[in-house]
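Quick start: read one record
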Amino acid sequence: MKVTVKKIKNESDVLQILKGLNFNKLFQNEEKVYIKPNFVAPRDNSTGATTNLKIIKTIAEALNTIGVNPIIIETPGMEYNVEDVFNALNIYDFAEQNNIGLCIPKPKDFVKRKIFQGKVLKFAEIPQQILNYKLINIPVMKTHVITTITLGMKNLMGLCSDSTKRMMHVKGIHKTIVDLNKLIIPDLTIIDATNTMQGDGAVYGDHKKLDIVIASQNTIAADKIGSRIMGLEESTISFLNLTNFKKKIQIDGELKCYDFTLPKPGKIYRLIYRLLYFIDIFFFSFFKTHFNKFLYSTGLIGTRPEILKKCTKCGICSDICPVNAILMEKQKIDYKKCIRCLKCLEVCPEKAIIIKGVSKPEKIKKND
């Protein structure tokens, strides 16, 4: 099983990877191909949280060149609104400018499919759009407070309905990730390790720049090499260990291991996190909103910005806020509007905004 690992400097390097994978032959007879990036949250690729748009652009251009229509398909994390995420990441304009279709699955688009040899997750609701077309999976290399890392296998959760995502957390995330990958099998997985994330990922960790791309027609093989590059033993990543993958991996390129800071939250945090999804089963049925989203809207829990008294009311944070959540005169944040993109923190010249919550970049923790 071949896995390509390559340092990239520009678009031509990505095209060289595609050529080595017989990209044109793999997709040339298709009417359309769906692209699954990681747009989990409203934080751009410079933070390491979401997929590099330059890589998506290059792949989309390669598909357009052979007469295939590229279509991005994605749903963000359950606590985020898809419109907020896509607007914050400028996805609508990006797609239009680069001749890329957009598919945001609606509830009616999800179909229930039985998972052959599923051990814990017996069924999953996935978009009907991907059933008859090929799929390119483009995750980001990141650490994750619940699964230790997230690469190609976990990225496929973004294709599931909210009810399936919830059930995966409740039943056990590692085992259900393995089961889901028996149902959804991408034709190509390209791990974006240009801007990666370490620490308390997968949204609010620390940026780590590698400028690497990992590619394979086998998602598990790509993840195994990805974990090694992150300096981790495969046996320490439960969902990888559970795959019982025995095929020999042929590495095309240089395999260099890097030192990634792992997430700090421990077993108690993960237990509470899992409990939130269990509560959500009942909460959502009554209130039609997710429990974690409700908790974040109170401003009492979760990674969130807070304005300090030393704020000079310069208004720079208010100007950059994509949802007008900053009440400048009151020096407060409307958490019912706040999408936790942390753009306000990044631009504040007075360092008058801090981040509350458990998961946050290490440099912020040191300043707390």
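The mean pLDDT is 95.
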